[in-house]
Design brief:
Layout lengths: L5 E7 L3 E3 L2 E3 L4 E5 L12 E3 L7 E3 L1 E3 L4 E6 L5 E5 L2 E3 L6 E6 L3 H7 L4 H13 L6 E3 H17 L45 E4 L3 E7 L4 E5 L2 E4 L4 E3 L2 E5 L4 E8 L2 E2 L3 E10 L5 E12 L12 H18 L3 H6 L1 H10 L11 E3 L4 E13 L2 H41 L1
Antiparallel strand pairs: 1-4, 1-5, 1-6, 2-3, 7-10, 8-9, 8-11, 11-12, 13-16, 14-15, 14-17, 14-20, 18-19, 21-22, 22-24, 23-24
Amino acid sequence: ELNEINGIYIKVIAPYEEDGVKYGVGDELFITGKTHRMYFPRPEHAIIKYGDQEKHHAVAIPAGEARYVLDRLTGKITLQRGPDVFLPDPRTQVVVRRVLDPRTVALWFPGNEAAIEYNRRLMMTAQQGQNMVTEEEEGSGLRRKKERGRMDRPAGAPQAQAAPVPASFAGDDFTRNQNFTGPRTIILDTRYEGAVAIDVWTGYAVLVVGKLGERKVVTGPHTHLLEYDETLQVLELSTGVPKRGDKPLRTVYLRTLNNKVSDEVRAETRDLVRVSLRLSYRVNFEGEPAKWFEVENYVKFLTDHMRSMIRHAVKQRGIEDFYANAVTILRDVILGPQGEGGKRAGRVFVENGMRIYDVEILDVTIGDDSIAALLVGAQHAVVQQTLALAAEQRKLRFTEESEAVARKIT
């Protein structure tokens, strides 16, 4: 008995003719329920089995997922996308699974230990030198594991016993189950069975690269199904404060919106006083997405350029002037002068479409403690003088108003 979602794989072992069609020795047929609801064996037919499996069954592919299908004649691997109940033709098609090495899994799926373990098992199942495993190989591995479990069962384990036949009544009887029998239910857990799916979150982007040189930027929110020959471009980003390149962060996900890059800049003023600046840049990637990945380490590219500009600007100022106006000076250098409405254009990097749209000046530290103490003392003196002057001015106004009131009374 066959239906539309299963079939049998036949090898012709003797020539014959049926419905005007001639079949020769060695011909292969795939008979499904679409053409034969009932299959009656012929002496000219031999069933090709994979293990102990006579029937080939379809696989369910939910919406948003896919399976890798290998063409056995051409070697081309394509994506069979869902929603679909896909019945591969064993004469030409094989459903395969892509095996990822642990380093790639850690990059594409950070912190997903289950994915690392699953791909490790696939690597053990696949033959040496291959980066794929067929559904049959994976299924046979599971069957062997189950058979070992049955063999390990103790000899004295209880076996199912047939129900005794009652002797009190010789006629037919009907026994109905007192419990509700629900409909047949299956559980679809296709998380690791289909094509590799990359979930790109809002505000992130990935660069998909094909083996033939194709490049495509995928921006979130989106789920992208990788073709069998597609990989993701890896970025190496400087880390630490100040930013350094000796321990880069490897990632495939580029933060394109509301990105934050922190850095520390050491500079020297015109009067040879060293200062340390802690900054936090706010960054967006704008324009053509294809340019976003033109710079592999955009963090180093940004911080190196801004350090040079900031050091040049600080060198033009004396320490007293710079310390008093550090925020305004730095914002003018990084974001540009204020325009109409007090808005600043920001700093644009045409090389990769990066734009600094805001900056936070977190701290300004003077390297020489004695000069810092003098500046603080001078600021205190200015504040004291300002307060004393304000007090004298208030006293003067009080005296003038008092005399004016006295003259009016007299």
